[in-house]
Give the backbone structure.
Amino acid sequence: MNSPRFLIALATLVLGPWFVMQASAAKPNFIVILMDDMGYGDVEPFGSKLNRTPQLNKMAAEGMKLTSFYAATVCTPSRAQMMTGCYAKRVSMPKVIGPSCPTGLSTNEKTVARLLKDLGYATMCIGKWHLGDQSEFLPTRHGFDHYLGLPYSNDMGAEGGKGVKAGTNPPLPLLKDAKVVEAPAVQDKLTKLYTEEAIKFITAHKDIPFFLYFPHTAVHTPINPGKEFAGKSANGRYGDWVEEVDWSVGQVLKTVRDLKLDSNTMVIFTSDNGPWLIKGKDGGVAGPLRGGKASCWEGGLRVPTIAWWPDKIPAGSSCAAMTSEMDILPTLVGLAGGKVPTDRKIDGMDLWPILSGKSKDSPHDALYYFSKDGNLEAVRSGHWKLFVKKPSGGKGSPKNPNPALPVLYNLDQDLGENTDVADKNPDVVKKMLGLIDRMDKDLGVQRKGPGVRPCGSVSNPKPLIMDGKEYN
């Protein structure tokens, strides 16, 4: 009965509007908009000439572009990192999971939602979860008051997709909290549905601190733009969906402005990994970067990212310092007046010195690149990037298609990762191998190190429930 949220509710009843105003001013609101498979070159602020994104243009003009912001190579690991502030391998979520999987994100993890909820925040997740569809793994067991969305990727339903034989999985479910409310989900209505729900949540909680995690289904294949946007872009159905998402971002920011919450609300727009290049025109592009989703080339993990908070984050600014989705947890918790857990290792760092414009330096001495199988492939430190395993998702550089390992790239001079300079920089290679050795002692390279925490597990996974019955 003495939880922070109970005390806030009691104080609101006793002290009325004065307390509501003070509480709201004391703690900022947070909105994290996460795209699915959007490439570095898929929006205009990051160089797209194919997709029209006027709302993201405006967001970037009013905020900060993070041009070296890293995710994971594929869906589940990326979302695990976003929620926990840890490398996916540390929380035993290094691979993509599917329907009725016996494993998921452990409820022992202290997610950003749980930490903010403990600080009195209203919390909601709208969109794709993909950290386990068993009841104990769903968002409502990880600090979210409410949830609306798909529990996994939109190609994992009965209609089939990559690695999914048609008919082997249940129809694609739309969940509200922990119950299936529609199956199969009508995919061309999802972006509009999600956006309307986001507006409702923001409006309903305008007088108390809130955290909205908004992981879109878009633009993961199959591509399903809404009817209002279908056929309207100059880049086929992929461009249609990108432009619908841009509209959605605009609706969210407009709601924040109309409610006069913009001076106290930080919004972050980013993606969970690079573009799914094998999907061709349905897969997006990585712009100047090499590779895409499922690879440890820059195009697989470096994602378009914008941070917006009028008068707090410098307008029209840009920062090239190494940053990561793992940094979101410590940044938000710190701004909310809380503390990062000290009973476990957190890999993320507080980005507020960068976002506030006070620093251009990365808080990380290194960032590590893990493959879609959870093996350590590369490390970046400063402008240097060293591969210690043959790069996944493609051959070696065009000038050296089968390079001898390790391979070193200078990203300041060679953003496209074309020229191996290991032979010319033996001291750099030695230093970078030391960083690899450090991580090997922590999380392992091709094994699990002592720093790995167990995932959640159920002995008898069950299908999701609809209308009180298991559906299939």
